[in-house]
């Protein structure tokens, strides 16, 4: 693959890749890093490009893997931070009730989506926010089309139940 | 869009059976300000509001990808002149001199050892000749030894004479 093909076929999907990374990582800098790393990885594995049927989906898979690696690393860091945080005096901690009151509806929905298992969350984000087709999601996540539909149905079902709880109990 | 139609689309949405167009219609519907929204639809509104808000991710300014690719390439081999490696050559010469000197020392030492050994080597190749020469040497030794014994015999005569005089 020449540089011109790379620039004309891969670089235009960079924005899409960034958005996907951002959805997974919820951090602009990390999403930017992952996007750049993914593009470099694609360039380094350019000999594979000719065998690919869906180049964009392949790029998405690379982004997802890199983002998940980053999340894993971040999880360890968070665990360390939490260990340190337990040493803080209790006076700094707000009650769950106060925290709940401060959050607006958007934040509550955000929490519901964020609490979904990673696969459900990714599928719902790709479908309901990014507007991807089932086939595009299947290619990006390297899963079957039927699996996409089942997971999307389960994800929406969970979101619906959580939304109903939110309306009824306000939690 | 009529509320019943929205409910119908929502049912398909929850079942995971809606098309992209139907989902887009729901997004447009719920993101339009309405005062007369029934309670059941009002409950769902935040979800589609969230989807619309989340779709607006600020686009970052990406660095030049060509520059990034160029940086990721392995650096070209830097050509240096042969004389830039003078230290290597000096080390090789020094080692050669050292090895030569050590070989020379070994050689001279070896020769010295061989010379020392040659002194201890056999003087005759023929055993009979060697035996005859040994006999001759022992005979010479014996002769000289007998000469000494005769002198000591004289001394014993003198002792005996002295003892007799003392006894008288």
Which features would summarize this protein structure in a list?
heterodimer; A: 171 residues; mainly alpha; Rna Polymerase Sigma Factor, Chain: A; Arc Repressor Mutant, subunit A; 2 domains; 76% helix; B: 168 residues; 3 domains; 6 helices; 0% strand
Characterization of this structure:
Chain A: It comes from Chitinophaga rhizophila. The complex is a heterodimer of chains A (171) and B (168). With 171 residues, chain A is mainly alpha-helical. Chain A has nine helices and no strands. Chain A has two domains: 1-93, Orthogonal Bundle (Rna Polymerase Sigma Factor, Chain: A); 94-171, Winged helix-like DNA-binding domain superfamily/Winged helix DNA-binding domain (Arc Repressor Mutant, subunit A, Orthogonal Bundle). Chain A is globular. The termini of chain A are far apart. The model of chain A is unreliable at 81-95 and 98-102 (pLDDT under 50). Chain B has three domains: 3-55, no CATH class; 85-121; 126-168. The mean pLDDT of chain B is 85. The chains are: A mainly alpha (171), B mainly alpha (168).
In short:
The complex is a heterodimer of chains A (171) and B (168). Chain A has helices at 3-10, 14-25, 28-44, 55-85, 96-102, 105-114, 118-129, 134-141, 145-169.
Percent helix of chain B: over 70%
Rg of chain A, Å, rounded: 19 Å
Number of strands of chain A: 0
The assigned structural class of chain A equals mainly alpha
Strand content of chain A: under 5%
Radius of gyration of chain B using CA atoms only: 61 Å
Proportion of helical residues of chain A: over 70%
Low-confidence residue ranges of chain B: none
The largest contact between protein chains, plus residue counts on each side, is: A-B, 42 and 28 residues
Distance between the termini of chain A: 53 Å
Large-scale geometry of chain A: globular
On the 0 to 100 scale, the average pLDDT of chain B is: 85
In CATH terms, the superfamily of the largest domain in chain A is RNA polymerase sigma factor, region 2, helix turn helix motif
Our count of domains of chain B comes out at 3
Shape of chain B: rod-shaped
CATH A-level architecture of the largest domain in chain A: Orthogonal Bundle
Low-confidence stretches of chain A: 81-95, 98-102
**Largest sheet features of chain A:** none
Give the number of domains of chain A: 2
CATH level-1 class of the largest domain in chain A? Mainly Alpha
Order of helices and strands of chain B: HHHHHH
Domain RNA polymerase sigma-70 region (chain A): 14-75
Keywords (chain A): DNA-binding, Sigma factor, Transcription, Transcription regulation
Pfam families (chain A): Sigma70_r2, Sigma70_r4_2
Protein name (chain A): RNA polymerase sigma factor
């Amino acid at each position: 693959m020449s540089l011109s093909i790379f620039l004309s076929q891969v670089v235009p999907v960079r924005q899409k890749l960034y958005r996907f990374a951002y959805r997974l990582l919820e951090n602009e800098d990390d999403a930017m890093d992952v996007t750049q790393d993914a593009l470099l990885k694609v360039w380094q594995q350019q000999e594979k490009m000719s065998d690919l049927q869906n180049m964009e989906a392949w790029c998405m898979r690379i982004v997802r893997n890199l983002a998940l690696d980053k999340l894993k690393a971040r999880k360890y860091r968070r665990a360390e931070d939490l260990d340190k945080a337990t040493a803080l005096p209790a006076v700094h901690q707000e009650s769950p009730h106060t925290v709940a009151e401060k959050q607006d509806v958007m934040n509550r929905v955000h929490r519901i989506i964020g609490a979904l298992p990673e696969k459900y969350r990714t599928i719902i984000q790709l479908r309901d926010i990014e507007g991807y087709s089932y086939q595009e999601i299947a290619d990006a996540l390297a899963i079957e089309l039927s699996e996409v539909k089942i997971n999307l149905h389960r994800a929406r079902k969970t979101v619906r139940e959580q939304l109903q709880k939110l309306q009824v109990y306000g939690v | 869009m009529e509320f019943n139609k929205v409910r119908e689309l929502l049912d398909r949405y929850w079942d995971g059976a809606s098309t992209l167009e139907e989902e887009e219609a729901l997004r447009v519907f719920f993101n339009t300000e309405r005062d007369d929204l029934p309670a059941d639809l009002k409950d769902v509104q935040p979800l589609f509001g969230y989807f619309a808000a989340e779709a607006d991710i600020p686009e970052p300014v990406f660095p030049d990808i060509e520059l990034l690719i160029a940086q990721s390439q392995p650096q070209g081999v830097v050509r240096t002149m042969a004389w830039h490696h003078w230290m290597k050559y000096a080390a090789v010469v020094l080692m050669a001199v050292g090895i030569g000197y050590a070989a020379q020392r070994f050689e001279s030492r070896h020769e010295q050892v061989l010379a020392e050994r040659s002194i201890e080597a056999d003087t005759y190749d023929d055993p009979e000749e060697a035996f005859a020469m040994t006999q001759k040497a022992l005979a010479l030794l014996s002769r000289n030894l007998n000469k000494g014994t005769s002198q000591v015999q004289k001394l014993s005569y003198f002792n005996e004479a002295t003892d007799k005089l003392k006894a008288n």
